[in-house]
Amino acid sequence: MNSRSSISAEDIADIAWGGAFLATGGGGDVTVGRMITREVLRRHGDVTMVPLEAIDDDATVVAVGAVGSPTLMQEKVSNGEEAVWALEALEAHIGRQADALIAFEVGGDNSLVPLQVAARRKLPVVDADGMGRAFPELQMETFSIYGVSATPLSIAGDLKDIAIIETRDSFIAERLVRHFAVIAGGGSCYSAEHVMDGRTAKRVSVPGTISLCRALGQLVSRHRGDLEGFVLALGAPLEAAGYGVAKVLMRGKVVDVSRRVEGGYDVGRMLVQGFAEDPRTMSIDFKNEFLVARIGDQVLATVPDLICFVDNDTAQPITAETVRYGLRVAVMAIGAPEILRTPRALQVVAPRCFGFDLDYVPLEKPKDCS
Q1: Distance CA 102, CA 114 (A)
Q2: What's the total number of domains in the chain?
Q3: 363 assigned to some structural domain
Q4: In this predicted structure, what is the pLDDT of residue 370?
């Protein structure tokens, strides 16, 4: 491997805020994860980050991260060891050790989990992930979409309950992992999954996303209190990472939040009423992540494009489980990377895959659900 760079404890706040932005509401709150990861790197040293294209073709790459309800994970805090246990169990099962780790999603707390494990195990982290955002289900990872088996995978709970899962496809694996998280894990667990070689990782991953998190987090810090400046500055790093247009859909106040935990997911709808100059009301449906934004019958943005909440006054990202009545927000949308827009990907991540009677129309094109 070559072209390496380092991630230090001082980088974690930026990566966390960038991950919170790309999380599209999901991925878990970064507050606790940021503190855990920063402390782990202070104790164990910097983490080496390797560009996707620089991974050795025959390297063993393993994806790690957290699974569960973001709302419940706010109450049930990680002990910081679960993902290490999951990785060690998987390595024992497959009879070889990981050469590098990769995030299965770059959104929220899951942008940090691979860094925690990498620091403890002295492994490099790949500058890439399997979603380019956050999605609620395992089969929605680009790894699975483009042919990598999710299993064998291992899952671990906070009391070191560990299971190895072998299934015929990623849809079944998702159900079993979710069942473990809800029943045995008390709402969450950590997984090590999608074992692949470096050659395959280059084909099925979204490149440059950890670097993008760091760049976006730096923008959050630099433009705190300057939403317009933040939005203008987003274009360059997003374009460099292969994302599409970024736009503000509405600025307003949260006037209603309907949220429930259903099958291990946070599910519901939020309403945002525009400020005086735009008194319309926008609805945003979510399943862990924000999925569809519309005003009346007009659909403004849908999954797989990214729908993001930021604080209207600070430009700080807001995750779905922390949205509450009265928050002043800006609702933004960002065009997804092309790897999520192919016909093959849309069979798994289009609006209809989440139960909406809508076809996906790219953010750049007008939408009307009538």
Answers
A1: 6
A2: 1
A3: no
A4: 35
